[in-house]
Prior knowledge:
52 residues
Amino acid sequence: MNDALLPKNQxxxxxxxxxxxSLTAVKAPGTHDWTAWHYSLIHFxxxxxxxx
Length: 52
């Protein structure tokens, strides 16, 4: 993965987990462009519509 924002996102994920948040982190291949957003969107949408 070639994304300059990755270290900050990894820190945010760690901080949220330390505070007790339950989350799913997904890494998309490539750079921070439309391809990564498309990849993330198709994986993110099913997660927000899950029933508990």
